[in-house]
Specification:
With 486 residues, this protein is of the alpha+beta class. α7 packs across α9 and α7 packs parallel to α10.
């Protein structure tokens, strides 16, 4: 007879935020303006860190905090709870209760595993009993999504391996999905506003008041993020008041912005914004989300600005989605990306890029990656992304310190099979599976920090006699016998 399950032994002391809270923070749900409930908070490590950062957070746990109230909150986290509950009925009740308490979003996470994990314990119910008398139910990514959706009758959106968001607020869900496709303009692009100065011919008849640099930068940054000139209701109240004090009207202020930097930047931003909206709509179609009522008003306004009508935009998005299923279109887009310096093509087999370049790719490749995100979550947590042109696969490569090492080591590889809706995870930590990432400048863009130094290093590697870097290159031990780095 098996001993009683000791659920509380699965709780661990944390020195940093747990994975689901990291994803909540990354996507802006821990901004201090929302109340947070940690359902099954364990020893309370996450709560302590959240409160230290002025986030209103409460927690409940049946063992460590049973007397704390289970009150509704904007954001609820059910972190690694359902995988340690051995009773299937109780497991579903915990998931339903946590969702019932969420005002905006519920984060659900559980342990992912493979068949080999079942060798680590004794079979019990639909999981195993470990050597510490704890229960573990291991899921695949697809199984976890299906389970959450079957219990809650709501869509579970993958944000990472073993982590899903389920939205109670459908407007918040649409804003979240749109942000995923919006290009975030870097500080270097905004700084360009102040470096591309033009000679301004003084206007006769009156003295124009010149805007301070900080207002020029703020207005230009807002225009780049929108892909169009902002309207008064697109600006934060404080910024709008500052503009009115200086020039009385937004139109006058924007004329000064265009006098100070190259308008080509806005054209590029407009193209990127329109592509982002198409990708957003295409993935909504892919995920069977087409209810316009839940679409934020500003999103509808932007769609009409770029495409005239929402119907026209949806038709273009549907065509884009279908094009992502045609290898010839993926091949053309990969060639275009490679010619723009965005990654490296391996013949006509694949394109590999650094994940930070994803939002600069042609829209059809962003849709391709978005379809993979539906299964896996945020694919940009990987260092490298590989688009397989003909096989309908998408691979994530996680390496050790990509930017810090000239020849980083591969740690984990995730292969997402879009046609079969399946995921394979391969760990590369065992000695027999260790491999290095060679010639990494191929996956970088020339405007990325460190590119020139890496390119010079890679050129020296290519010139070394007896070093064959074709295909996957030599085994690590063979490489280090030839190459000695300081």
């Amino acid at each position: 007879m098996l001993p009683p399950v000791q659920r509380h032994r699965t709780a661990i002391n944390r020195s940093g935020l747990s994975r689901p809270f990291q994803y909540l923070a990354r996507h802006g749900f821990l901004d201090g303006g929302r109340r947070v409930l940690d359902y099954g908070c364990g020893r309370g490590g996450d709560l302590e860190l959240l409160r230290t950062n002025n986030i209103q957070a409460e927690g409940w746990d049946p063992h460590y905090a049973p007397d704390q109230p289970l009150a509704p909150a904007d954001v609820v986290n059910l972190g690694f709870v359902i995988n340690v509950v051995e009773d299937p009925q109780e497991r579903g009740e915990a998931l339903s209760r946590a969702f019932g308490l969420a005002g905006t979003v519920l984060a659900v996470s559980a342990m992912l595993g493979r068949d080999s994990f079942f060798d680590a314990g004794r079979s019990f119910e639909d999981g195993i009993i470990t050597s510490r008398d704890t229960f573990q139910k291991y899921y695949t990514q697809t199984e976890l999504k299906d389970y959450i959706e079957s219990v809650l009758q709501a869509e579970a959106i993958a944000v990472g391996p073993g982590v899903f968001f389920v939205f109670k607020d459908k407007g918040a869900e649409q804003r979240f999905l749109l942000r995923r496709q919006e290009r975030v303009w870097s500080g270097s692009a905004v700084a360009h506003l102040l470096t591309c100065r033009r000679e301004i011919t003084p206007r006769t008849g009156r003295t124009a008041r010149i805007l301070p640099d900080e207002l020029i930068e703020a207005l230009g940054a807002r225009a780049l993020s929108l892909g169009r000139e902002p309207r008064t209701d697109d600006l934060p109240e404080e910024l709008l008041q500052a503009v009115v004090r200086e020039t009385r009207t937004l139109g006058r202020a924007m004329r000064q912005v265009w006098e100070r930097f190259d308008p080509v930047l806005l054209e590029q931003a407009a193209t990127s914004r329109a592509d982002g909206l198409l990708v957003y709509l295409a993935l909504n179609i892919f995920n069977k989300r087409q209810d316009q009522k839940t679409m934020p008003e500003q999103t509808r306004r932007d769609i009409r600005y770029f495409f005239r009508t929402i119907k026209a935009a949806q038709e273009a998005a549907l065509a884009l989605l279908f094009s992502a299923g045609r290898p010839e279109n993926i091949l053309d887009a990969c060639r275009q990306a490679a010619s723009d310096g965005l990654g490296w093509m391996d013949g006509e087999h694949s394109l590999t890029i650094h994940s930070s370049l994803l939002d600069r790719l042609p829209a059809v490749l962003r849709v391709y990656a978005g379809c993979a995100s539906r299964l896996f979550g945020d694919v940009t947590i990987a260092d490298l992304l590989k688009f397989h042109i003909h096989s309908g696969k998408f691979t994530l490569l996680m390496v050790d310190d990509f930017f810090g090492r000239p020849v980083p080591e591969l740690k984990c590889r995730v292969k997402i099979k879009l046609r079969t809706q399946d995921i394979d995870i391969f760990e590369h930590t065992d000695e027999q599976y260790r491999s290095l990432v060679y010639l990494k400048s191929r996956f970088m863009h020339p405007d990325m920090d460190g590119y020139e130094e890496q390119k010079a290093f890679d050129d020296r590697l290519r010139a070394m006699p007896g070093l064959d870097l074709s295909r996957y290159g030599p085994k690590p031990e063979e490489f280090w016998r030839v190459v000695h780095l300081p």
